[in-house]
Design brief:
By secondary structure, this protein is α/β, with parallel strands linked by helices. The protein is about 35% helix and about 20% strand. It has two domains: about 1-170, Rossmann fold, CATH 3.40.50; about 180-245, Alpha-Beta Plaits (2-Layer Sandwich), CATH 3.30.70.20. Helix 1 runs parallel beside helix 5. The longest helix has 23 residues, at about 125-150. The radius of gyration is 18 Å and the shape is globular.
Length: about 260
């Protein structure tokens, strides 16, 4: 089984490619986390976890959910991480999480995808984003091939810098940067509620037909990037920046989604 978490669609695309290549079912962690469902999941022997990279590690909301969830039948686990530039020493922590779950760790694959963290960086325009996605194809194919043959993913070299990024920098990132108070809407907001629907942590609610952000944010950028009116800003940091949603690239790949019963 392939389980995934995705804010703006990069990891969902990778998931669809992997699930299609392996003929595996897939499960949305977004939906499970949003509904507070930590019930057991029947995965079969092979578990593939596809997630974005937040400060050189898997998102904390994902590691927390995995830690609380029982994966029935899982014997081997592969991690596949989408990122804008690199995953640092993320595999160190993925291995620890695998060991905690009692599942054999089969390594971590790094897939470079278009940048979406517009609270800090610039997202590419559509044409550049398409080129980045195309360039990611061979890396995704290699991961699929390794998983198909039950092989370990190639071990990545990350050195002291990677350890620092995934360790000290990650620990500082959440308390210093991951806050929702800077999100706000401008006068073009239509009150459609799309931001409420796409937030995996139920951190966005509607008040007087306008979205209001709470204190439980993971900075997935789903709300700001999915807004059809581009009416959401993150302080001044997002002003004038292109929004990024994979679905707007016009690239499609279907997997078999396992709905929660």
């Amino acid at each position: 089984m392939v389980i995934y978490f995705s804010g703006t669609g990069n990891s969902k695309y990778i998931t669809d490619r992997i699930a299609g290549g392996l003929q595996e079912k897939l499960l949305s962690m977004d939906e499970r986390i949003k509904s507070g469902n930590t019930g057991s999941v029947k995965t079969g022997e092979n578990l593939i976890v596809v997630v974005p990279t937040y400060a050189w590690r898997i998102p904390r909301v994902v590691s927390d959910w995995i830690g609380q969830t029982e994966f029935v039948g899982a014997k081997n686990v592969w991690y596949v991480m989408s990122c804008g530039s690199g995953i640092g020493g993320a595999d160190i922590y993925n291995r620890k999480l695998s060991e905690k779950k009692g599942i054999k760790h089969m390594g971590t694959a790094q897939i470079i995808m278009p940048e979406n963290y517009i609270a800090m960086f610039n997202a590419p325009d559509v044409e550049k984003a398409k080129k980045i996605v195309v360039a990611a194809g061979p890396a995704i194919a290699k991961a699929v091939l390794a998983i198909k043959h039950g092989e370990h993913l190639p071990e990545r070299k990350y050195g002291l810098g990677g350890r620092m990024e995934s360790g000290l920098v990650n620990s500082v990132f959440y308390p210093v940067f991951v806050k929702a108070k800077a999100f706000h809407t401008d006068q073009t907001c239509t009150g459609c509620g799309k931001c409420v629907k796409v937030c995996p942590l139920n951190n966005v609610t509607m008040k007087d037909k306008k979205p209001v952000w709470g204190s439980h944010c993971t900075h997935c950028m789903a709300c700001i990037c999915h807004c059809p009116a581009e009416a959401i800003e993150y302080g001044r940091k997002s002003v004038g920046k292109p929004r990024y949603c994979f679905e707007n690239l016009g690239i499609e790949e279907k997997g078999t989604l396992l709905k929660d019963q």
